[in-house]
Specification:
It is built from five helices and seven strands; from the N terminus they run H-E-E-H-E-H-E-H-E-E-E-H. By secondary structure, it is an alpha/beta fold. The protein has a three-stranded parallel beta sheet, sandwiched between helices. A two-stranded antiparallel ribbon has the order 1-2.
Length: about 170
């Protein structure tokens, strides 16, 4: 099935909502608009029409000195401006590894700033982030990596009793 894209998409600097507000007078708000590639599902608040990467860039330009990412366990704090620069460096690193638009990057980790960075960096280059449950064991990791066709795996070394490197070597 092909879903047409609206003829006037939102640009990163455009704050105007896209498309008509969905309203069917007989039944109230509609839950889906078949004429759009994306929809706010009947909400009165329209979608921004931005990727998460473009939204980060916009906020980083508007509020570069406002705190954006806090990783208490790692003792790290980054402003939007700092985080945007970190994401740019990570995106360039993925490109240097040969990751291209549409490639899959798997992340096997607990919550940390690198995980969030990977999420935004993959979006920035058009790659697909594959999240791997940190509770997975070797056989589950192998299944996810094969099914997802991940080109790269980012992982932490260990957490609690799980040694991710040892499990990766088992795969």
């Amino acid at each position: 099935m092909t879903i047409p894209v609206p003829s006037s998409p939102v640009t990163p600097d455009d704050d105007k909502p896209v498309g008509p507000r969905m309203q069917d007078e007989a039944v109230g708000p509609r839950l889906h608009n078949d004429d759009l590639a994306y929809d706010s599902c009947g909400s009165a608040t329209p979608l921004l029409g931005l990727t998460i990467d473009r939204a980060l860039e916009r906020v980083a330009r508007a509020h570069p000195d406002v705190e954006a990412v806090v990783s208490r366990p790692q003792g790290l704090r980054f402003t939007y401006g700092e985080f945007d620069r970190i994401v740019s460096r990570a995106a360039k690193a993925f490109l240097a590894l040969g990751i291209e638009k549409g490639d899959r990057v798997a992340v096997w980790s607990t919550n940390n700033y690198e995980w969030v960075t990977a999420q935004y960096a993959t979006a920035r280059i058009g790659a697909i982030l594959v999240t791997v449950n940190p509770a997975y064991r070797s056989n589950e990791l192998e299944y996810v990596l094969k099914q997802s066709r991940a080109k790269v795996l980012m992982l932490i070394e260990s957490f609690k009793t799980s040694n991710y490197l040892d499990m990766l070597y088992d795969v």
